[in-house]
Every structure is written in structure tokens, then in C-alpha cells.
Amino acid sequence: MTDRIRLTIWNEFRHEKVHDSVKKVYPDGLHATLAKNLAKAGQFDIRTATLDEPEHGLAEKVLAKTDVLTWWGHMAHKEVGDEIVARVKKRVLDGMGLIVLHSGHFSKIFRALMGTSCALKWREADEKERLWTIEPGHPIAQGIGEYIELPNHEMYGERFDIPQPDEQVFISWFEGGDIFRSGCCWRRGHGRIFYFSPGHETYPIYENPQIIRVIANAVRWAAPLVNMPSDSCPNTKPLETIRSKRKS
Ligand code: ZN
Asked: How many domains does the chain have?
């Protein structure tokens, strides 16, 4: 791995084309805003990829040169090809980091890696969200302080049907009374996965410096420490002489 982390920002890029309320917030697409802000936040070599590109912008050669992939999707999860999902999953198991954002909780790739429905409660009521940092010593929480406050956001609430996270970094409180596990870490094979819930498309969440800081920290945390097949199953010779073998 080079010192600079090779980051691919994947976005469905549909809402921005058809909904004026989203176009206003992300005129060039949410991926362009993430790319612009993450470029200032870390030593990243950034490329973007979107659903309507050939192979959704995730050709083998692109994934081979990706250390960490971020994923935002919502209205077109079903249009993501199963072959591409299998390809991304294999790369995660072999070491690539994956950061799943907001409505990506229902993406094929996240559900495939979690093995559960990833369903949750939701409500669009323009309410306040406070994300509490519950593991201030975690690399992803560095520089964040005690909490992040979003003055208005969509509510995502429990129960969130995920496997128990390996590490829980943030938990959200919502003005309407719900709570949510908003920053969760898992390992699958050699890869690291972080789910981070902020990012409803009608709010400029990805212009918020604290949110960008969390994502940049997560990219560094998820960068591969190894990059090797996780599914080899070799028949192997003993290192020492085995003396307890039964006589035939
Ligand atoms: Zn949303």
C-alpha cells in the first residue's frame, strides 16, 4: 500500500438528477461534494464512481486500485448488479475498507456483508439529531469531541436490524425521542466496515466539517493492513515432525 490512501467515492446519483430539493443542496452530485471536502481532510487519492457508468464505475481494475470505498445509495438499490455486489464483497473480504453512508443501510452490498435485513425505523420530521461519541479513544472519533449536533435531519431509529457491531463509536438521540446506533464498526474477512448514518440528501450534511472529519477518520481506519485472498483453503504440511501418529 502506498502512503496515500486510494479512495473511491460511490454514489447512486439519481436524486440529484430528478429532485430539485436535492439538486439545490448537491448541484454536482453528493459524490462531488464528498470528494471536494474529503480532499481537504486527508492524504487521499480520490476518484468517484456512479450507478449509471458502465459496471457502475466499479470495474475490476478500479476496485483493484481502491483501498477504501464509500457507498451512498437510496432509490435504486435494486439496480445495482449482483455481479458487481459479489465483486465488491470479495474485495472487502480480501482487505478493502468499506464505509456505508446513510440510506446505504439497505444497499445490496451492506446487507450481503451483514447477513441481516438492515431494516430500521425512519421519519422525515426535520428534527434535531445529536450523535454522542461513546468511544472517544476510537480512531474514528478523533477530533470530534463529546457530540455532533445536526440542527435538522431525517430520523433513523432502533431497532436497526444489524449484527452486534464489533465496536460502537456513535449513538444518536433524536428530538422526537428515538435513538439509533449511528456509527458502527465490523470486520469481515480481512476488511473493515464502518456504517455512518448522517447524510439525508435534502440537507447539506456532507458540508459539515465534523461529519467530514468522521468520514476521513473512518477512511484512515478502514485502509487495508493486508491485501490478500481470504478464501484460500490449502492442505498444509506440518512445521514440526508429528510423533504422536498412530502406527498402522
Ligand atoms: Zn434519507
From this structure: 1
